[in-house]
Design brief:
Elements: H1 16-38, H2 45-67, H3 72-94, H4 101-120
Helix pairs in contact: 1-2, 1-3, 3-4
């Protein structure tokens, strides 16, 4: 038996811990994108190093979520969507990027897409 050999049985697809891991992975995306911008084209070594650390953590968490049996296509769509929305929000709040009504509308469409992918990926 797998449990007797010290191995854990696979988690079911709808596992909350897997989805929480995926959300954390997605939330790390705007962090590494922000540090990349602050690295000024990787010329500031401290920000460049931070970029690689947060990029690794984000991808590592994505990999862990995939290992917990979140469907690959759904996981990637949710990960990228969270990262895209987060990066847009950080850009608007910190870097004074445009935040007109149409841009906000299209951000809402991304959120709807993420929710739909998650809801239908179980």
């Amino acid at each position: 038996m797998a449990e007797e050999a010290g191995e854990r049985p696979p988690l079911p697809e709808g596992n909350g811990r897997a989805w929480a891991t995926l959300v954390v992975a997605g939330l790390l995306e705007p962090v590494w994108v922000t540090t990349m911008k602050l690295s000024d084209g990787f010329t500031d070594i401290e920000w460049a190093a931070a970029t690689f650390v947060f990029l690794f953590l984000s991808m590592y968490m994505l990999g862990k979520a995939l290992g917990m049996k979140v469907p690959m296509g759904t996981a990637y769509a949710v990960w990228v969507g969270i990262g895209a929305i987060g990066s847009l929000v950080v850009g608007m709040l910190i870097f004074n990027e445009p935040h007109d009504l149409m841009r906000l509308f299209f951000m809402l469409l991304i959120v709807i897409g993420i929710a739909g992918a998650q809801a239908t990926g179980k």
